[in-house]
């Protein structure tokens, strides 16, 4: 069997904030066994992705697939996962019926470490989604791994698309066989500082513009001489007209 | 140019949303109270007979003079916080007060008349031990300062150092006290614990060592705690182990003589460490030979050293507090002894004879809601007939100062606990009796048409009666001059005003004293002292039931948690009257990790408080059957989170029906890289009026309004200025989903955060540019809403759009809060407490990440202000004009009944209350509104229509006849 090429494509997040980071999205829609993919083009390492769904909500984690993480400047990730067995499918539907939880967990990992022993750390990162959402979305979930500045995984999140539980029955068992997972790993974005450079540039441009436009350069008197003259004449006229009028009133 | 003018005009109209106060509005809607803190040293100004000053130096590093007639401040100096500004010693001579500040760093002299600084000098380094005034021939000229290794003498007139000498053998000897008896010698007293006392005598003139003595004292470990100098230089110490006094003549080289207390017929209460109290009325003269020894918590004995023999003058039992005081030449002792459960009596005794002075009894009543007295400060004066009169300032353990006059009249009380407010809430005042009657009518069950009608009629009658009474009062008051009309607010006549502008401020202070303060006048309506509150307690105050549920009384709960052990107690009380509720709070045997208030209510309309203990078990308060049933139904939708910042672990839990919990999500932020410094959720009583923002092209940008969103701030452990950073993580508290994660590089704390609506504003110190910067993050769902009817964290698959922008702020800040109004229609302002004491009201409009760098037609349409990197501080934005609020620690905002008005309380060393109108008073008529004009116009129009109608009729009739 030939390896299916993974399709990395970069997406740019639309926002005014400058995103320094690119996230590699990986589609994993293959029902391959876990062991097959260990020797990949990734110079990465593999950690298990585990899941748990129980009717009594006591977590019993089982391997769902293997995450292959690529360490380095631009972290990448890919996932191979098993199909759900018939037994599991039945259980998942059962859990969904009692509004149980579908949980996943990944071990804590340090991506920047060179040696395998340093990479794995104690403890797990866990997340959950309602089991019914998992069923109703036909196992299409979006898993995001979050790392911190120095490359430690700090959190994992899972959402399903669509996310709602509407109570629609999933009749076809085939829908619950293969996971349709969108996987990504996100590092923190750099928050912007105050944009002084651009502002100064704009200010300079404005002053330049002003400099070019001679009309703006005119002095106050040069610009409004007609108004001032008009005002002065008006004042003069009213001054000379008032005394007789006032006097007239006094006389009468 | 025209465009620019237009832009400027727009700018002005936009920014002018806050008007400054008019002169006649000063103090009309706002008040300020200034405090000094817990008193450490206090002296009465004695150099003038008729002086009204008392000097206080406090633990809050404040030095102030109080007016003894009114309790007001004459002047106050607020020093730096922390050990840098701490006041180590206060010495007073004449009209100078000498302070040693900052563990012996500075020596200052203040003129106590005007509070001006005479001089200040920097002392040599070394930790401060003691200071005293030194004089010669009744003339006090110097102040001696003893440090760990040196002793120095300074002129009182200008602070110049006269001499400084190293202390001999300062590596082994622990010098602890300095004494001067007015004979030109300065004694440095040191101890080698459990070995000997070292005495070094310096000449005050040139600092030459006159004498150096070492006396065996294997029982002594601490001079300051157990010794005192009395009479002609007799160092007297008390040894609790041997139950005896030891005396040593400082002038003669000799052995210490032991005087067993038993030989004086005195007995020490077992387990009590006796304490000596002596007095030196004039630093240029020797101390008196009379002194007190405290033998038990409530037992003092007045002793006298007479020709080398100790004589018992009087045994005071029971006596709580004693104090020496000198008036003229007479020295008297004031003794406070318990009288009965509710009162203490204070009496004066002659120090020389121990006889009680006639007519000097003063009664000090003990309020059960006030702490026990801790210290007496006595001001004595000679009356015309040469008898001694006195006034007393009592310092009690709840940090209150009360000033008493004979025969026990409290002239004033200062509640210094209010200088350290930890948390507060504002509670609506209850309705008046008549209003409540009307409300009650709707609350009761219907029992027949007839009785309902009767009830309605009766309540209407009561209303009518109340209205007439009100009118009568108005009429009656109108005839009196305005100054005589007083509206004293007492607990009895408290009632909600028309627009709910007057509220009850419930303040919790660090000392464990609770206060109920009327927000309109600032008068303290009730106080309640909680005893045995641990000193490191954390407080959380919650309003469980508001006043809206008549006849059930309002109810507040205060969780007091010991930070070390995690053990908590619950104090449940009525926030209007301060009385402890009859509801018994649950016993909490386990340490409490988290508490949360649910919107659920029990049948008595009290909100349910959930407490999570360290076994992750949940208990509810109140825990009635009804509540438990509701909890069981709701359990699957009750989520909570715990944060362990020491491990960087955030974990989410869900409630199960049996009130146990299950872990559902976990986020771990490694502490090697960054540590969590603060977590901010949104305020539960916040309303957002508009779901989105209308853009220039008439489309709508919807806000991401997640009520469960938390803003987490982290600081890097690496403090290097190139590598330090601040992390902002927005995380959903229900699902643990990280919504946004950003780092602000080359930045450092302290970070102040405000999280509200769809935005987070934070302020930090930029290490690269060395300035304070503001950053704002706004979250938007986009052009369409995912589910417009209801928000659920479990069903919001799309991540929001995140916009961010940063600005330079020209000042450091102390605290930050956002305004809050009833319905959220009014635009928001940020209230920023500055270290300078100003409170700035900064329109949120200036912190908008959509401020465009290039002005376009659309952004102008939207009224967006063009981006400018610097936020300016305009003086008219200060809401407290010249009413400086010292050391602001927190700002509390509460909505009022008017949508335009937000009530603001800033607290720190001072308390300041005011109202702000972020969008001006759009729902209030102005004070100078012309009612006459509008009504006369109305009447004129009315009559005009009447007349013209009549005329028209006549005309029609005429036409018809024609």
From TrEMBL, chain A:
Positions of transmembrane segments: 6-28, 224-242
One Pfam family it belongs to: ECM10
Keywords (A to Z) from UniProt: Endoplasmic reticulum, Membrane, Signal, Transmembrane, Transmembrane helix
Chief location of this protein within or outside the cell: endoplasmic reticulum
Keyword DNA-binding in annotation: no
Localization, UniProt: Endoplasmic reticulum membrane
A single Gene Ontology CC term: EMC complex
Bilayer topology: Single-pass type I membrane protein
Entry's family note: Belongs to the EMC10 family.
Self-association state and partner proteins as the record states: Component of the ER membrane protein complex (EMC).
Name by which UniProt lists this protein: ER membrane protein complex subunit 10
Gene (UniProt): emc10
């Amino acid at each position: 069997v030939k390896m299916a090429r993974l399709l990395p494509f970069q997406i740019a997040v639309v926002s005014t904030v400058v995103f320094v980071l690119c996230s590699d999205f990986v589609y994993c829609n293959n029902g391959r066994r876990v062991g097959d993919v260990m020797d990949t083009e990734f110079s990465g390492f593999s950690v298990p992705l585990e899941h748990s769904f129980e009717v009594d909500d006591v977590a019993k984690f089982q391997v769902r697939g293997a995450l292959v993480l690529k360490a380095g400047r631009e972290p990448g990730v890919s996932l191979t996962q098993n199909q759900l067995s018939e037994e599991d499918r039945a259980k998942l539907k059962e859990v969904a019926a009692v509004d149980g939880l579908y949980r996943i967990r990944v071990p804590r990992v340090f991506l920047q470490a060179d040696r395998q022993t340093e990479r794995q750390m104690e403890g797990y990162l866990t997340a959950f989604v309602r089991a019914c959402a998992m069923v109703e979305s036909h196992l299409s979930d979006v898993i995001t791994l979050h790392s911190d500045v120095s490359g430690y995984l700090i959190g994992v999140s899972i959402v399903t698309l669509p996310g709602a539980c509407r109570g629609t029955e999933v009749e076809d068992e085939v829908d619950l066989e293969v996971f349709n997972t969108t996987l990504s790993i996100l590092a923190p974005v750099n928050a912007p500082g105050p944009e002084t450079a651009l502002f100064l540039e704009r200010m300079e441009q404005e002053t330049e513009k002003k400099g070019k436009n001679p009309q703006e350069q005119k002095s106050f008197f040069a610009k409004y001489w007609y108004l001032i003259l008009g005002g002065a004449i008006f004042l003069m006229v009213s001054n000379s007209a008032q005394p007789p009028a006032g006097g007239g009133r006094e006389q009468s | 140019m025209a465009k620019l003018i237009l832009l400027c005009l727009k700018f002005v109209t936009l920014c002018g949303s806050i008007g400054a106060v008019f002169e006649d509005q000063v103090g009309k809607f706002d008040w300020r109270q200034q405090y000094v803190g817990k008193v450490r040293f206090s002296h009465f100004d004695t150099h003038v007979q008729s002086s009204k000053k008392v000097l206080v130096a406090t633990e809050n590093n404040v030095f102030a003079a109080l007016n003894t007639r009114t309790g007001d401040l004459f002047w106050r100096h607020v020093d730096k916080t922390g050990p840098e500004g701490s006041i180590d010693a206060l010495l007073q001579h004449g009209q100078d007060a000498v302070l040693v500040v900052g563990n012996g760093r500075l020596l200052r002299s203040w003129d106590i008349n005007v509070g001006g600084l005479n001089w200040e000098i920097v002392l040599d380094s070394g930790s401060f031990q003691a200071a005293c005034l030194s004089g010669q021939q009744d003339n006090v000229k110097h102040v001696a300062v003893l440090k760990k290794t040196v002793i120095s003498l300074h002129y009182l007139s200008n602070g110049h150092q006269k001499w400084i000498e190293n202390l001999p053998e300062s590596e082994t000897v622990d010098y602890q006290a300095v004494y001067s008896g007015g004979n030109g010698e300065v004694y440095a007293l040191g101890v080698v614990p459990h070995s000997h006392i070292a005495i070094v005598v310096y000449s005050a003139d040139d600092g030459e060592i006159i004498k150096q003595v070492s006396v065996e004292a294997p029982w002594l470990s601490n001079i300051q705690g157990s010794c005192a100098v009395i009479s002609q230089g007799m160092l007297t110490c008390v040894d609790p182990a041997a139950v005896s006094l030891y005396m040593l003549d400082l002038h003669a080289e000799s052995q210490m003589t032991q005087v067993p207390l038993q030989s004086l017929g005195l007995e020490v209460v077992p387990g009590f460490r006796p304490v000596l109290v002596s007095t030196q009325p004039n630093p240029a003269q020797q101390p008196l030979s009379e002194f007190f020894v405290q033998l038990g918590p409530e037992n003092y004995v007045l002793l006298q050293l007479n020709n080398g023999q100790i004589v018992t003058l009087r045994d005071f039992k029971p006596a709580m507090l004693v104090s020496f005081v000198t008036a003229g030449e007479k020295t008297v002792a004031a003794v406070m002894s318990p009288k009965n459960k509710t009162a203490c009596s204070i009496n004066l005794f002659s120090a020389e004879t121990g006889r009680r002075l006639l007519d000097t009894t003063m009664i000090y009543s003990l309020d059960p809601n006030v702490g026990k007295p801790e210290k007496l400060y006595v001001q004595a004066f000679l009356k015309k007939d040469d008898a001694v009169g006195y006034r007393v300032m009592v310092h009690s353990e709840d940090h209150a100062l009360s000033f008493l006059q004979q025969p026990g009249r409290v002239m004033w009380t200062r509640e210094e606990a209010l200088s350290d407010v930890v948390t507060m809430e504002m509670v609506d005042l209850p309705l008046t009796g008549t209003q409540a009657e009307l409300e009650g009518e709707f609350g009761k069950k219907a029992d027949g048409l007839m009785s309902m009608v009767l009830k309605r009629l009766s309540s209407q009658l009561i209303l009518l009666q109340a209205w007439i009474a009100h009118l009568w009062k108005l009429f009656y008051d109108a005839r009196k001059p305005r100054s005589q009309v007083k509206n004293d607010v007492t607990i009895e006549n408290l009632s909600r005003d028309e627009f709910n502008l007057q509220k009850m401020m419930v303040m919790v202070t660090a000392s464990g004293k609770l206060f109920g303060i009327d927000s309109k006048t600032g008068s303290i309506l009730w106080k309640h002292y909680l005893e045995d509150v641990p000193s490191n307690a954390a407080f959380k105050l919650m309003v469980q039931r508001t006043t809206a549920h008549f006849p059930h009384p309002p109810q507040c709960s205060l969780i007091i948690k010991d930070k070390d052990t995690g053990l908590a107690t619950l104090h449940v009380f009525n926030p209007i009257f301060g009385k402890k509720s009859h509801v018994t709070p649950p016993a909490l045997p386990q340490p409490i990790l988290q508490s949360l208030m649910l919107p659920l209510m029990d049948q008595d309309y009290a909100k349910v408080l959930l407490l999570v203990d360290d076994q992750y078990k949940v208990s509810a308060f109140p825990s009635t059957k009804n509540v438990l049933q509701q909890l069981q139904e709701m359990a699957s939708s009750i989520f909570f989170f715990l944060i362990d910042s020491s491990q960087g672990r955030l974990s989410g839990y869900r409630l199960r029906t049996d009130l146990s919990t299950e872990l559902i999500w976990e986020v771990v932020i490694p502490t090697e890289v960054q540590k969590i410094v603060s977590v901010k959720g949104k305020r539960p009583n916040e309303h957002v009026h508009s779901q989105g923002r209308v853009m220039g092209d008439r489309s709508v940008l919807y806000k991401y309004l997640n009520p469960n969103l938390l803003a987490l701030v982290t600081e890097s452990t690496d403090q290097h200025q190139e590598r330090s950073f601040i992390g902002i993580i927005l995380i959903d508290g229900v699902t643990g989903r990280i919504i946004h994660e950003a780092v602000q590089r080359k930045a450092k704390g302290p970070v102040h955060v405000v999280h509200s609506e769809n935005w987070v504003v934070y302020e930090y110190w930029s290490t690269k540019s060395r300035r304070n910067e503001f950053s704002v993050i706004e979250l938007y769902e986009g052009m369409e809403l995912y589910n417009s009817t209801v928000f659920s964290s479990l069903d919001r698959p799309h991540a929001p759009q995140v916009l961010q922008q940063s600005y330079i702020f020209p000042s450091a800040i102390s605290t930050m809060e956002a305004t809050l109004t009833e319905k959220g229609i009014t635009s928001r302002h940020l209230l920023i407490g500055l270290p300078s004491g100003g409170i700035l009201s900064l329109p949120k409009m200036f912190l908008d990440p959509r401020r465009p760098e290039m002005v376009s037609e659309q952004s102008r349409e939207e009224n967006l202000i063009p981006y400018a990197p610097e936020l300016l501080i305009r003086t008219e934005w200060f809401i407290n004009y010249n009413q400086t609020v010292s050391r602001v620690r927190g700002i509390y905002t509460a909505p009022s009944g008017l949508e335009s008005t937000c009530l603001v309380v800033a607290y720190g060393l001072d308390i300041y209350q005011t109202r702000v109108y972020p969008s001006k008073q759009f729902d209030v008529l102005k004070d100078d509104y012309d009612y006459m004009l509008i009504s006369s116009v109305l009447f004129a129009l009315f009559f005009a229509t009447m007349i013209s109608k009549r005329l028209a009729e006549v005309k029609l009739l005429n036409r018809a006849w024609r």
